[in-house]
Design a protein that fits this description.
- It is a single chain.
- The chain is α/β, with parallel strands linked by helices.
- The chain folds into two domains: 144 residues, Rossmann fold; 64 residues, DNA polymerase, domain 1.
- The protein contains ten helices and six strands.
- The chain has a six-stranded parallel β-sheet with strand order 3-2-1-4-5-6, with helices on both faces.
- Helix 6 links the parallel strand 2 and strand 3.
- The longest helix has 19 residues.
- The radius of gyration is 17 Å and the shape is globular.
- The two termini are 22 Å apart.
């Protein structure tokens, strides 16, 4: 395979796949078990963040560390049970993965999700081979918009941040990419954020689906 020294770092939920509704239902069920309703506004302001941050937002300091861990485990169990029934890649994803691979881009996952979730999604969609590095919630201490997750992914691939492009769907993820000194392509297929918000966060390119993106278009971002 040719090599060009560039790397593509992928977010997962909303970028590779759309499992937002599965996350919402799992959080709603789990929070209700603890006596707290969980609505769409709660979901919007917490989606894409790490579980410790979400739980603190929802419950403040009302839970012990053990209770918070148990709650997170319960939520992820419900999510994986639902996801296991079938998940599909979003439009254009598989072709772009193959195109980038053929053009010599190294690729990694950089996500706020637990590793078990990511491994399940990559296995169900059959794209594990594209990602020699997978950075999960367990690997980081700070969530997006902090760039830690993407900087670690770049380090694992041996790629300088200035030669990395991040593929994201969320404002916080775009901000993390920019804070890490990386290029960023934002995809709006799931529609959590407006084009204006993504551009204001620093996206170099905003597309409706990844069907609009080629490896050559990605490489031109670095010219």
């Amino acid at each position: 395979m040719p090599t060009n020294g560039y790397a593509a770092l992928w977010d997962v939920d909303g970028t590779l796949v759309d499992t937002a509704e599965l996350h919402f239902r799992a959080w709603a069920a789990t929070a209700l078990e603890r006596g707290r309703p969980f609505d769409r506004d709660d979901f919007t302001r917490t989606f894409g963040r790490r579980n410790p941050e979400i739980i603190h937002t929802l419950f403040g300091d009302a839970l012990t560390d053990r209770e918070a861990l148990d709650l997170a485990d319960r939520k992820e169990l419900l999510y994986r049970e639902a996801a296991g029934k079938g998940v599909e890649l979003l439009p254009g994803v598989r072709r772009l993965l193959e195109d980038l691979d053929g053009a010599g881009f190294r690729q990694a996952v950089g996500s706020s999700a637990p590793r078990a979730n990511l491994e399940l999604i990559l296995r169900l969609t059959g794209v594990e081979r594209f990602f020699p590095a997978v950075i999960a919630a367990e690997d980081t201490k700070r969530g997006k918009p902090d760039p830690q997750v993407f900087l670690l992914a770049a380090q694992r691939l041996g790629a300088p941040p200035g030669r990395c492009v991040v593929l994201e769907d969320a404002v916080a993820g775009v901000q993390a990419a920019r804070a890490g000194g990386m290029k960023c392509i934002a995809v709006r297929f799931v529609g959590h954020h407006s084009e204006e918000a993504l551009r204001a966060a620093g996206a170099d390119l905003v597309v409706t689906t990844l069907e609009e993106v080629t490896a050559e278009a990605v490489r031109r971002l670095f010219d």
